[in-house]
Amino acid sequence: MFRKRSYSLVMTGILMGMIVLLMMFGSRLFLDIDEEPRVEEEKRIVVGVSQLGSESGWRTANTESVQNAFTTQNGYFLIFNNARQKQENQLKAIRSFISQRVDYIIFSPVVETGWETVLQEAKEAGIPVILMDRNVDVDDQSLFATCVGSDFVAEGEKAGRWLEKELRKRGYAEERVNIVMLMGTEGSSSQIGRTAGFTSVASEHESWHILDKECADFTSIKGKEVMRDFLRKYQDIDVVVSQNDDMTFGAIEAIRESGRTVGVDGDIVILSFDAVRNALEMVASGDINVDIECNPNQGEYLLRVIDMLEAGEQVERRYYVEEDIFTIENVTQELLQERTY
Ligand code: GYE
């Protein structure tokens, strides 16, 4: 009993001693580590970014572009959150950015609707919101400062115009053409815009028949599933319009498994969107007929917008990124080597 007590007394003594030592030296240590950057941090612009997910190669490239832009060297403190394709996660992230009093909120809205309340909260807190990639559908346009992204309707139209030309070239301009569409996340700007753009061109052609269109969430797995269903339902598909490369990869697998062929020399014409490197390689090898580029490198544009806002300059309502369209004719080895995503 006595021995035990003296043992615990000794232990307490040692512990107390360690605490005193820690307070003497440790606090200096912690101060040294902590203190300096904190001064710098104050000068940095704090940006909260709510990315919608990591569903595609395009998205990964977009995330990298943002992370490469908002660096410490560029004078930023970046708080990044991945919402894993859930609007509720984005709402949570934005609210946490507001309570942390960030200087700017950037977010890529997974769908267009349902943002009024949270954007109103950001506005009341005096935090400018910049939309990246996709848009929001709100009546009050003062709820966000500006928007950096693609013209999705134009992308859809480009796909339609390409098909027009291709059919003419093959001498099929007047013949019946059966089309199926794999669409992206339902209610997202890219799905809405690309669908509207393509269908408006299709409506000019009586011989074009859109047999079916189905959402496959911009992922390869769902693209394959939906394409498999289409192939079971329809024997005579001529054209697949797939709203991103990941769904295209899945769709091509399903087509090949069904015994059909794709691309320039195949049974089924493939139109895709994004133009990530893996897909461009398939354009070069003739497996994908055309890829409508969607530019994920939006970090630089966002930096410029924030520079302007910091300088008190007026910003535009929208900034469109530059985009091209790729076929076997213009995908060079040089382009493939340069492509970083
Ligand atoms: O095409 C797709 C991604 O909104 C432009 O989202 C973006 C789309 C892109 O998942 O791959």
Tell me briefly what this model is.
With 341 residues, the chain is α/β, with parallel strands linked by helices. It has helices spanning 2-43, 57-69, 87-99, 116-124, 152-170, 189-202, 220-233, 245-257, 277-284, 299-310, 333-338; strands spanning 45-51, 76-82, 104-107, 129-133, 146-149, 177-183, 208-215, 239-242, 269-274, 290-293, 319-320, 325-326. It is built from 11 helices and 12 strands.
Number of distinct helices:
11
Order of helical and strand elements: HEHEHEHEEHEHEHEHEHEHEEH
Any idea what the radius of gyration is? 26 Å
**Into which percentage range does the β-strand content fall?**
15-25%
Which ions, cofactors or small ligands are bound in this entry? beta-D-fucofuranose
Order of the strands making up the biggest sheet: 2-1-3-4-5-11
Specify the overall morphology.
elongated
Number of strands: 12
How far apart are the first and last residues' alpha carbons, in Å? 70 Å
Mean pLDDT, as a whole number? Answer: 92
Folded structure, characterized:
By secondary structure, the chain is of the alpha/beta class. The chain contains 11 helices and 12 strands. The protein has helices at 2-43, 57-69, 87-99, 116-124, 152-170, 189-202, 220-233, 245-257, 277-284, 299-310, 333-338, and strands at residues 45-51, 76-82, 104-107, 129-133, 146-149, 177-183, 208-215, 239-242, 269-274, 290-293, 319-320, 325-326. Strands 2-1-3-4-5-11 form a 6-stranded parallel β-sheet, with helices on both faces. The chain has a 6-stranded mixed β-sheet with strand order 7-6-8-9-10-12, with helices on both faces. Strand 9 (269-274), helix 9 and strand 10 form a beta-alpha-beta unit. Helix 5 runs parallel beside helix 6. The chain is elongated, with a radius of gyration of 26 Å. It starts with a helix and ends with a helix. 40% of the residues are buried. The model is unreliable at 24-37 (pLDDT under 50). Bound molecules: beta-D-fucofuranose.
